[in-house]
User: Fold these one by one.
Assistant:
Number 1:
Amino acid sequence: MNYHSPSSFEEASAIAAGASGTTRFLAGGTDVLVQLRADIVTPDDLIDIKHIPGVKEISRTEDGGWRIGVAVAGAEMTECADLCADWPGVVEGMDLIGSTQVQGRATLVGNLCNGSPAADSVPGMIAAGCTVTVTGPEGSREVAVEDIPTGPGRTVLAKGELITGVTIPARGEHGGDAYLRFIPRTEMDIAVVGCAVNLRLDGDTITEARVSLGAVAPKALLVEEAANAIIGTTLDDAALDALAAAASAACNPIDDKRGTIEFRTHVAGVLAKRAAKIAYARAKGESA
Amino acid sequence: MPKDSGIGASSKRREDVRFLTGTGNYTDDINLNGQAYVHFLRSDVAHGRLNKVDTSVAAEMPGVVRIFTGADFEGVGGLPCGWQVTDKHGNPMQEPAHPVLAQGKVRHVGDPIAAVVAETAAQARNAAEAIELDIEELPAVIDMKEAVKEGATKVHDDLESNLCYDWGFVEENKAAVDEAFEKAAHVTTLELVNQRLVANPMEPRVAVGDYNRATGDSTLYTTSQNPHVIRLLMGAFVLGIPEHKLRVVAPDVGGGFGSKIFHYAEEAFCTFAAKALARPVKWTSSRSEAFISDAHGRDHVTKIELALDADNNFTALRTDTYANMGAYLSTFAPSVPTWLHGTLMAGNYKTPLIYVNVKAVFTNTVAVDAYRGAGRPEATFQLERVIDKAARELGVDPVALRRQNFITEFPYATPVAVEYDTGDYNATMDKLLEMVDRDGFEARAAESAKSGKLRGFGVNTYIEACGIAPSALVGQLGARAGLYESATVRVNATGGLVVMTGSHSHGQGHETAFPQVVADMIGISEDMVEVVHGDTANTPMGMGTYGSRSLAVGGSAIVRATEKIINKAKKIAAHLMEASEGDIELKDGQFTVAGTDKSVAWGDVTLAAYVPHNYPLEEIEPGLEETAFYDPANFTYPAGAYACEVEVDPDTGKVTICSFAAADDFGNVVNPMIVEGQVHGGLAQGIGQALLEGAVYDDNGQLLSASYMDYAMPRADDLPSFQVDHSCATPCTHNPLGVKGCGEAGAIGSPPAVVNAVVDALQRGGHNVTHIDMPLSPGRVWQAMNG
């Protein structure tokens, strides 16, 4: 195994592009190192991107949004008060991953690139409208988070490509987001269903919304029908029921020992309602 | 006023200082000069014929010392079973061979095929991957009812079938039981599963084998609850080493819960290989390996029927149970669904007629054996669930129905062969209801309803048979061992004592509680007493710790040995004070002559025993050391009443435990704080079974829940703050301490309380749900509510 510690993303990309065997990028290592130690994946080239300047920074963008470096750990996001105030749903999704120790290492981009349909940080990023910068041999491009995963364990990233940062849009006025997941216990398990809702209000009426579901399909979903069910409403009971119905309708889950298809489909609707209520309250400036 | 030392005091657990500061000495901390490491290559298929195990390439890998396969163990005994059950026709159970390493066939995922001994653990693991296997896969036998059908694939080719035994208890009562059912005014029937569990002690199993070429002595360091039992089983039945040439040491052990009672292949292998290679051999289980090699628990499928007369008196009980043995018979497996289960089916009730049928079945799964409670949780769960269902069907209060049928006179001989010596089931029920404020339930339910939640209340009682066991009785029942316990009390010249016990502490707090007993008897400070346990070289032959037996049986042996010490010390004191032995009294560490002001101190007497210048040498020997073996006259019968209050989220099926209360009768209590801790732990384990845990096999025999990602252990945030009481004590009548045992109660009594509460919540919410099988995961509860 060759260990590389490039000093720029371009160099990292070039190493990956030129590698012939199994290649892994190392940031937090909470997936890569576990797989390596368990002999599941032994990379021929391990490219450590933690030492590239700026990868551990959380910074403001010019338009008032946020830029999260690829090696920023979940615990660092949780400790950034302004980020938590703007995007509590994005932060709480990330914060649900793993134990306290894992929180000190795990990253948003790692969680995204691992390609699990149940990845807890992904629905929050999709609902928020996050994009990531993909750098490769042909240069860089911005890609919406929902377009990165293509199925369990698979992404659109081509050989030599890697993600170099996450952009969260400006929060703007009267907005709120929330992420909820449902598991048999309270933490450290894989989600049976995850749901994020992000919305904006004009007075009491929802003017914009994005709804994303995790763990109910081969990849995290952006569910437009669910968003449409609450746009133009004041999140009354009829809107909530329509939201739940649309969320459930979007599900295409598997049957396993954690939950049946029927149960996951139902709970997706329940969580969508609950997450929407929290996001709505946050948009109104109420604590939730 | 609580005591500050001796019996009844909440002395702080002295052993915790080393456990909490990382200075314990666990088996994995033992590293011997020149030790090699073993890695077991385990089957990844549930059932298959071993056509080839080719180690030639692996043997050339770096660091490999030697690779062993089943062929190396052809002249060696198999792992023995310690209990023979006789079936309902009077025939002995079917007992398959259990080789140390697989021979001819593999029978479950995890069955060890080969053992690679290498210079490092990593080298052993790497070489194991290079072993070439040709396994012809056979159909896996997983479902018990399928396994016993005509023509089913056999787990063991040389047995007649997959049925280990078909046990009827009491077979002679069957006709009378059937007749009572025909006459019954009401019959309640319940079919249920008591799911398979994995014990998961914090410390995985470890074994270090050592062989001394100079003396020819073998030593095994192992994570065991009973080192003497391992020495006997491994020495006599597997390796043919006499006890005086074999030492077994179980040092600090990080939890057992039953799973470390049994003699395992890895222990025999390390001892065998150390001799073969003349160097120490060490094995440390990974957590993943533990899931597929530690004996599992429970796994019963049961149909229970309760017959009542027109006045709601229980008239008869009939059960039909399939009990999973797994692929091989683990050490005490056959006894668990029979003598530890059938004998408890009377519960706390005076049901006059009982018939229990148990079919023990071989399947291509990990062996199942005793797990905290062992048979008694299975008995309690089905009985307390069927009573709750009966109360609902009859429209009567579940507490009143129980009270009406309680046993109230003692001693009480049950129709299932045991005699309860003492108890007061109304007292524990009264205490319980006082603890839980049952009258306030409706108000709390209304509060829950405001947030859309369904609230439920569940109650049950339990009884268990602990302090196992009278040797003569268990011998008649098929045990291939006695179940006494032993103690040697050694008094040193300067007055301090060492208690060498055959019991083994792996979390129970013996090092604190046993000195409380001895110090109390003599009237000295607890810190003058030290406990030694876990090493066959310096403790008398003992049967170890399980079945809530250590204080009741081991503690009684300590009392007997201490009594001998006191009797001899009185003789010495009488000599020193020139008084008659009959006039000597011992109080607060001082010997006095009744009616005088003469006295000598404990230390003066102990010094005289070892410096016998002024000593009655013509009457007694110098020294002060005594040994006692205690064989109990009966089991002990701890009992109690438990209650649980839950909230169910009807949208998701998620159950939250709002409160849990336990009113136990453990007889006399030596250390209330330790007892409370034992109950807390037991409740956590029982609630874990009720809500979270479950070992799941697929049809191919793959264990789907083989890691903590998939097997949900209970954690602090899954549990409420427990209310625990043990004030309703009816002391045991036949052991000197009057104690009954508290280690398993929580795990036995809590699962039915949780399930009863959830069913109650759903019924109150208008859902006609009569039963849900454990674990009550949100998905299962939701599915039950939504048909």
Number 2:
Amino acid sequence: MPRLIELVNIVKDFSQNRVLDNINLYINQNEFLTLLGPSGCGKTTTLRIIGGFEQPTGGDLLFNGESILHTPPHKRQLNTVFQRYALFPNMNVAENIAFGLKIKKVDRTSIKEKVQDMLKLVNLVGFENRSVTSLSGGQQQRVAIARALVCKPEVLLLDEPLGALDLKLRKEMQVELKNMQQQLGITFVYVTHDQEEALTMSDTIAVMNEGRILQIGTPEDIYNEPKSAFVANFIGESNIIPGTMLEDRRVSFAGTVFECVDKGFEEDEPVDIVVRPEDVRITSKDAGALVGEVKHVTFKGVHYEMRINTGGFTWKVQSTVQSPAGSIVGITVAPDLIHVMQKSAPVREVNAL
Amino acid sequence: MTSYNANMMAVLKRLYMGLILFFMYAPIAVLIIFSFNASRSRGTWEGFTLDWYIRLLNDQHTQRALRNTVLIAIFSTIFATAIGTVAAIGIDKLKKRSRTAIMLVSRVPVMMPDVIIGISLMMLFLFVFRTLGVGSLGFGTMLLAHVIFNVPYVILSVTPKLRQLDPNLYEAALDLGSNPLRAFVQVILPELWPGVVTGAMLAFTMSVDDFMVSFFTTSPGVQNLSIRIFSMTRRGVDPSINALSTIIFVVVMIMLILINRRDRRLIHKNAEDD
């Protein structure tokens, strides 16, 4: 796949404050790439640099291999769906969608046709003459998408487009957006702080924090093989336990030695162990590698969430089978589900939604 | 007993309000009534007539003054509205500290006594003319002075509209391929329009209303209506002054009522949108 957009060593300062620190990223044609991170991590700034609304302090931005740093936004081959939609209040739905086409001097009959096609695509047939201020959030959202897509951009930039919608609508729109992207074959660059949204929709996720990209990969990669404790903690829930790498494939944590699949660490190197709550298996007292007491059980619908104290560490465990609070159980973790990471900066608590 | 007190209070409140309005409008009422008086006397009523108005309309000086007032009001409104709108946008884009400072500075002319604005503008014009060696006070300087004192009113009425503006609207227009000028005309200006129109109406009213600044920035040969009234009173009092004042009063009053109704309608509209 050819590289469509490339960010090379992008740096951005806002009056002494470094908000983007050496961002390197490429986006392939037809890719759905998500910039994921907590608020203030620089993801929106990155998107605004691609859109041309912000000039980077340093670095280069390539489009089809050519620098577009000095191309003003209205001459870039991409369109944006803004966070709060930014529909033009003085125009009705059809006029909003037709705005870009009129600028391109498309003739009247084809404008009408294309607007109709778009209304069909976003399920708003019959809304042509409605004022945009009379629409619900979800409908405004669809108009914003239609207005951007009607120009047939090579790339669509989306800045938390589903942030203002309620949960049910958001889930529906996630599926619809993904379908549209595949149907139309347009490259999507999507910004969100919602890890679930990122996992559901993306081909590739770039996890950002404090102006840096921490990890780029497929949703599966990011979820199953997080490269740092921050990523592990931000994407889904995790047990993060300090440990020591004894030798290749042998690691000690929580007072016990476990087999694992990681290697290449130094002997006795201190490490962070990440274990997903659904990867902890509950066994009988005698069969477990660790023994602990169930402190807490919460019913979560599909599964139960339990807190199991093994003396020194309280495990977050998810299972479809409930072990009652107060019972003594054993727990084990399969070697390939133990993720060993180099100790990096201390993990900061993040409210992953 | 309590209800008697409450009634008394209500009556007193109304009386008080009535007295204030009476003192405010009694002089104007007298002026209007005596503009229709058949006698030259300002004390006795001797029957209804439109003579003073007819005489006024036939007076060449007054005709010229009327023309000057109207031309200056129209052109100063156009220039001040354009300059003020652009200035408001520029001020809005500034960082917070400089924005507060400039808003304060731009408000000063609104609060400054007219006589000071008038004299200072006159001194400035004369200084420039002397330095250049050409030019004199007249229609041009009076127009310029009106533009200057009208700009703040436009800035003050456009600024709130800018505050309400979605910052992404302009970017969205650019994003869809519109150049900056087109984005401004087709997307931003329609959003600011109610503020621009209110500012223009205020500017027009202020221009028609002004005497002091005009007086200092023109030459004796070029009069507007308010200067004409002033010069007529110096030559002896004549009820056509009453007629002229009545005309100005009515024009200004109509403008104020229009502005007021507009504001109320906009508030209603905003309330419905929410």
Number 3:
Amino acid sequence: MRRSLLLMPGPTVTNEIAHRRAYALLVWVAGLAIAWTLFPLFHVRYSRAGNDTEIESREAVAVFDAQRFAKAFWTNKLLALSDHATDVGLLTAALTRDPAAAAQQYGRRTGLGGRYFYFIRGEGRVRAVDRRGVWLSIAGQSGTPVLLMVGPVFGNALRDATGFADITGFNSIDFDSFGAELNRLAENEVQPKLQKARFGTRVRIVGCAEAIDIDGGMRLQVVTASVDYFP
Amino acid sequence: MRSTFRICVSRAIATLAMIVVLAACGSKHSSDPARSQPAPKRIAIVISTLDNPWFVVLGNAAKEEAQRRGYTVTIFDSQNDPAKESAHFDNIVSSAYDAVLLNATDADGSVANVKKAHAADIPVFTMDREVNSNSAAVSQVLSDNYAGAVALGQNFVEQVGEQGQYVELLGLVTDNNTRSRSKGFHSVVDRYPALKMVAQQSADFDRSKALEVTESIVQAHPNIDALFCGNDAMALGAYQALLVSGRAGKVKVFGFDGSEDAITSIIEGKLTATAMQYPKIVARTVAEYADRYLKGDRQLPPRVPVAVDLVTNANASKFAAHARSDRD
């Protein structure tokens, strides 16, 4: 039966025209589809990071309490994680050898071109006390003097030396206020203890420091976060 | 016969269409070298005002760096007018720029413009002036104004002493830089109660306004010892007012920026100190970040402070306009 159908006379002329029209239409559609793909009349662009509502909710943060934030940072980061700090003897030796290499190895800084700060801990013996602060001698080190500063604390050593404070999420004014509050804590909570330092006393410290080049020699200036005296 | 003709015509047209399409495909890759390169992406640079030379340096440095990286660049001048800045952003969005490098007119007011671009999938990178949003801009590269002002404050106390009378000229009060500089300065000088601020007034970072403001302040307070100004343009305007009133040389003037005129004036002993910002570093970093972002980098830092340096008579010779010999 199938064979007989195949052997039947071909389609009528009308059917042949219809098929050829369908073929032509198919070719046109295919051509248009290719052309559309290659040369679209418009582009659909998707929003990058959600909508404004999402942005708004991320912006809706409480007023920043710098004092509270600084207190929490002081306790939970600066003091609690002081085992991450560099030994002061190790650092002074490195600074005496090569200040630039010491900065690369032990220093931290925020942003571009800023000062290097050092998160330090260790022991020393009081060798002098003057209006600038308490001068320490570190066992086995003599090249780089160590000064535990007293008086008004300025700058961002406490904020930036540890690497635990990230500027992400702050605006600059809040971040600066946070740094200023840390300085205030150092003045109010630590410096009264530093005033008790006497010549020859042994001390154990945690602090944040900056290496200052004075007439070609380095000095390590420390904002002290913790000081303990022991025999 | 007629049907056969129509069939032939249909086939011919279809074949021709295919040839045209294939020819178009082929030409895209081979026959026309000029069309083989995609059109360069476009970056809009929106500057708060081109009246201030510091911002001209900032804008031009950003433009040069973006062009060096293959972008087509247009600079828009907001003329310190948030409404003009908003109109620029409307233009930028409707023209579908690929990125915006923004030096904002207003820390809060400019946020809406940044969000407008964000919603249109146009990334915004701020230069020098912060916008108060943690998410609208991709990255904000800002001079560390607070630290610079702390250094200036310490120098101020050294130069003026721990007692005396001084005046503060503020910049635009809606700008975070104004607040950061003032806060940094006061974080130091307020520790010395005998240093009395007898007047504090805004001169909008403008030299002419600073001249006018200082003239009237000096009449009311003829015995001031120092002026702390939120930028160099105001410091130079204030110095002119002191010159007119015969007080030049008796009043110490402090600026902020590191402009060419200010550096020269420090060397000549007219100004006492300034804080050197680095507009070229800020601009190049922002242009680099925009380039990296457009090439797919999504790990850019949201905020990057750029250190500033204290410039006094002792070290001014190491500095050129907006730069230092070892740090451009």
Number 4:
Amino acid sequence: MLHIYCPHCAEYREEEEFRPKGEAHIARPVAPEAASDEEWGTYLFFRKNPRGLHHELWYHAAGCRKFFNATRDTVSYQILETYKVGQKPSVVAGQSSNKGAAK
Amino acid sequence: MQHYSGFGLVKHALTYHENWQRAWRNPTPKKKYDVIVVGGGGHGLATAYYLAKEHGITNVAVVEKGWLGGGNTARNTTIVRSNYLWDEAAWLYEHAMKLWEGLSQDLNYNVMYSQRGVMNLGHTLQDMRDIHRRVNANRLNGIDGEVLDIKQIQEIVPIMDCSKHTRYPIMGASWQPRGGVARHDAVAWGFARGADALGVDMLQQTEVTGIRKSGNKVLGVETTRGFIAADTVGVVTAGNSGVLAKMAGFQLPIESHPLQALVSEPMKPILDTVVMSNKVHGYVSQSDKGDLVIGAGIDGYNGYGQRGSYSTIEHTLQAIVELFPMFSRVRMNRQWGGIVDTCPDACPIISATPVGGLFFNCGWGTGGFKATPGSGNVFAATLAAGKPHPLAAPFSIDRFISGKLIDEHGAAGVAH
């Protein structure tokens, strides 16, 4: 059972109150009607799916019903931070790719 | 290869079974192979076997970071069925089903494929509409299927609570008599032994650490035992497909999730079929050893940890006890998790990639075991020809750009 800190409630709650909602920071194409099939398909379906640090969206379904982001290790499942939507993660993967500010 | 038979069993009994030949060699890697298959699970081993058997390509290596069949092949709930809704998926899984039916003879290895029937329960009117639609679609594709009413269900599974007093009363079910279960480890071992006999090298404890390319063409794989060259590389690494794709420099429309399963203590025979329910969400069968084999849905978060959250198991067992109140006193023996590579449309990816000579067979998600022989068969044909087998063509990665998805979510009774 994960203990998750909801940045809105400012409390640790049990995992069952929450729903994971996948990769965070996915930007919708700015002009959808101008987006190519490739851009649109990438936005809808293609994911980083990293083995290691993952910035992801969570929903406090049985609590405040607000969305927030978490940085979590996908191997140990340890949650390193949670932060509100719109904020940037403070913990990012060491080297190159995973900047959190997505494509 | 030493042929297995009843006579052999008696013969070896005279020497206390101490002189059985090893089922496969443990070779040192060659410098170059015609084809490298990355991933020594059921699908990878089947791919190697059919490459050698049907396409005469025997200079093949299976590169496995752990031991053969130690990933999802060893962790699934062994259910085999082919009652998928859409033509493309139905054809692919039925291709596998036909191979299952002759697999033990083909491999000279008892994979214990037991066609005890698979029942998918419906609990709502919409469930029943979907079941009717799916069974009709199956029949049009030549796949066996029936719609059962409560009385028929109760005759097949008398111990299930089919009363009106449950929270989600059972209204009917689809029934595929040719479906069933198989011995998962034996499938991996049988394919490995068969492939080894045809000359395939099984390289265990050899982890791929990189994919070497020249321009846009694959040259081989970097491993913990050095570089191994090949013009064609097939990646069949289930939950770790995304990691391999990253090595090759592209992304997949896949997310890796933990999927948990559990078995009970062994009991006397009580359940002689496979019961699945998407609505209350659980599935159960009884193994030949006597333990109940139980599973349900994935953990919602991405994970590579081969374990999940306790609450998921709790929900799974709630569903099983709802269906089978008598199981409430059964004690659970073991519980584990595997990493499944889930696709947005719950169908696999069997495809060429942006890198020439590099092919991926992944995205089987929660239901790859049932497809093991078919997956290997069409992937071997794809690797041998350098272009997709006709049954694999619709499962190209391009469908996530074109939008031509094969949406089996829910449609096929896919548990997710």
